[in-house]
Amino acid sequence: MKRGLFFFFVFAVFVGFFTNVQLRAQTQPWQQIPVPKLPAFHPQQPKRIELPNGMVVFLQEDHELPTIDGTARIRGGERSVPANKTGLTDIYGEVWRTGGTKTQTGDQLDDYLEQRAAKVETGGGGDSTTVSWSCLKEDFDDVFRVFADLLKNPEFRADKIEIAQKGLYDGISRRNDEPGQIAGREAAKLVYGATNPYARVAEYRTVASITRQDLVEWHNDHVHPNNIILGVVGDFDSAKMEARLREAFASWPKGQAANDPEIKPDPAKPGYYQVEKTDVNQSNIQIVALGTTRKNPDYFAISVFNEAFGGGFSSRLFGDIRTTKGLAYAVGGGVGTGWDHPGMLRLMMSTKSKTTIESIQALDEEIAGLAKRPIGDEEIQLAKDAILNSFVFRFDSPAKVLQEKMAYEFYGYPLDFMEKFQKGIEGVTKADVARVAAKYIHREQMAVLVVGNVSEFDKPLSSLGTVNKLDIAIPAPPPGLVPEQGEHP
Amino acid sequence: MKFRITSVQTIVVCFVLCSIALGQDLASFEKRTTVKKLANGLTIIICERPEAPVFSFFTHVDAGSVQDPMGKTGLAHMFEHMAFKGTDTIGTRDYAGEKVALVKVEDAYAAYIAERDKPVGGDEAKLKQLEQSWKDAIAAADKFSAPYNNEFGKIVEGEGGEGMNAFTSLDETGYFYSFPINRLELWAYLESERFLHPVMRQFYKERNVVIEERRMSVDSNPFGRLREQFAEEAFAAHPYHRPTIGWISDLNSFSAADAQKFFDKYYVPSNMVVAVVGDLKASEAMPIVEKYFSRIPARPKPDTATTTEPPQNSERSVVLHEQTQPVYLEGYHRPDYRSPDDQVYDAIADLMSNGRTSRLYRALVRDKQIASDSAGFTGYPGNKYPHLFAFYALPIPGHKPQEIADAIHAEIERLKKEDISDEELKMIKTRAKANLIRSLGSNEGLASELGLYQARYDDWRELFRSVDRIEKVTKADIRRVANQTFVPDNRTVGIIEFAGGPPPGTGAGPQGGGQ
Fold first, then answer.
1. Shortest Cα distance from B76 to chain A (angstroms)?
2. Which residues in chain A land under pLDDT 70?
3. Is A256 helix (H, G, I), strand (E, B) or coil?
4. In this structure, are A324 and A438 located in the same domain?
5. pTM here?
6. Rg of chain B over CA atoms, in angstroms?
7. What CATH topology corresponds to B6-293?
8. B154 contacts A314? CB cut-off 8 A
9. Which 3 state secondary structure label does DSSP give A33?
10. How far apart are CA B203 and CA B201, in angstroms?
11. Which residue in B84, B107, B74 sits closest to B156, CA to CA?
12. Between A166, A276, A323, which is nearest B150 by CB?
């Protein structure tokens, strides 16, 4: 079955054209429909509690359905892992749960939880790891016991480490099968540096070197109450839940605070980078550089710029590259903003092999166009309207409000950042948008990546500049670990 | 990129304890849900869910790519794209002038295609000239619309629309987004206008966009290539053998006039259900929705008869020799979603696939350690018509598709020969209850489920009533259905085999190795 119109989007409007709007009857039929004022809405805020041992808890009641869900987010993630153990938090994030606790194997937990249609799951990420649960209210005590036991008494049984490693080996063997996946991975390497923690990927040898001892040490180093933010949402009474959590966690002693490493991006030189893939008829193009963070005071102007330039159905890139030129189904872009480290500035699209060079030039024109026909009043109004009128969807459920607050807490943002964001967007001017476009987007400093069927391009990529061919061959596994790629049946 | 109607279908429900809770849910929904069939045949469902000042809608059109005419595969999906191109007042400078220009585009295109497709006696020079005339006509028509590119989407986004999208499957087409509640009337206008006065503008550029979508999701994607080849093999007579996205030659041939014809025939009010869920009161909202949607003129319900897929009676297989890692897939024909055994298939899918207690995970991933992932699922490639129950697995390095097939077949044999355990049966039913409860907590999810169930069963309550049916599923049912269905002559196998070739990105590849 086919997914519809937009696979992902970002995207566009022709400034010059807006003057023409005036040629048409002043008021269109849709504009005559009354839009009453949106009723005042004060979404319920979660209760924040800090235990004496430093654990931060958010409680958000939601009585619509008879369920209770929770997530503990623990500071420290893959970016803190030594390079020769890359993949450690993937293995940890799986085996934390599948390896069971001191008293119950992971298989026993599976049976116990599934009989209640409940989940307790663990996971690893770039800056944190998580344990979460999801259950019907009536099963809360049973499920919470498993959650707490996993936090404090995981066992990381060896048989499950082996299964997790095999799963990662399989992922490594398949990582060059889909062109979009290749493009995403290689673009990150160009922006952050191939060995940078934000771009590097697990290899057979790094995964093979991960031992049970590594997992135990990781756990002992990170899982302390003062590194944990716990959020609970659902059909409970906050006072009773607070008592329950205090009883479970208050006596848990503090431990060493997690430290995030200093990570310096090491971008590739600007220029053209090519990955040849002979079994495709479409090229994946990404033009990339380093972005910024949401702590940057420019964040609000960047948000408006992104919406107008590459952020939706109404954006320039969508209108020009897709609607007007018919060059792509998927096209988008903008200045990426991370929570605590720079995101990626990126323009991306996929197009048939024989319009590869034409499309790179079309994207170049879009960048050059930012100076020649700056984002105009109408575009900015539309972008601001789109952000502000849809603002209510950022907090239209108690769970969404909880997630936002937990993120602010985790990354050290003010807990009223959402209100600040709204005010910030309202204040963005045309000059602000022009300024951030000029400040962050410098074509000559960007790397152009193409993954495609080189022999079918309209012109060689070298017609645009010097081409660096990227070798993405998968490094062979240590002898005896898995059959080599070419021997795969 | 698969739109999984299956997730809706697998909502099955449970046992005595649970049925009390679910009974309450149904009673609660009875109070908050209002259905009205308009005089033109269109069905409106309004469900009150006053959690936040927003609402979501889902427009269900009971026509999918199964209805694509012969030689015009991809047309249902193409029309879906056109439904974002505006109306006679949205997206144009002057519709009267544009209309004339669009007729010229169609005339020029018809002349070009007639010359292009001449079996003999084609004239190259004439063809070039006709192509140029067609392109000139497009340029002339674009002058009316280009200043207002994507105006429909811009209005929706500027007014605060969230998650605007649509999908086309073999079975149906769906349109959806969410708005702040103060835009209810604006939405009713926009959504009804879209199906009252659609305009096939910028059709041939959008066709290129769709062709890029095909390149991305099928031609340049090994799973996409497998899915397409597999469906072709498994279905000989029923249109399920055709891809929703369309064959490339059809995409390069069908016209805006064809899309308009498709719309005229299938987008009739009696073929449409519009579900609206959110912070609204039916007593206030229904008159508004009715006012706008009742403007769509009644038209006869289309004939949707299709060939019934005959019994398979022979094992079939497709093997793709690729540069990519292996995949194993097999499917067995089963009856459509109205079958009395529908919930039995859902139970089997859950037992075989759901989580780390599932039989396939335990056998292939945990115990034999030959796959990184394995599951069985129903509703492939659709479920409105007789379709497939399928199994797949991704073999880990060093293991061949045949080992996977043997391991899956061993699990199927167990299903046929031994009763499942009491614990397993209980787990299936408990999980079904929990899944249903969890599906009720979002406007978007509810709108699509209520809309789909109303369209499929003519009664949204079937979403809850499946409780009764799942309660009746027995161990004997599972054995019976497994024995009926999972037999070699009813099987189609699809395999991707690694066939060597240049590993990507080494710069050493011979030319034209792939598609």
1. 11
2. 1-26, 483-489
3. coil
4. yes
5. 0.93
6. 25
7. Cytochrome Bc1 Complex; Chain A, domain 1 (3.30.830)
8. yes
9. coil
10. 5
11. B84
12. A323
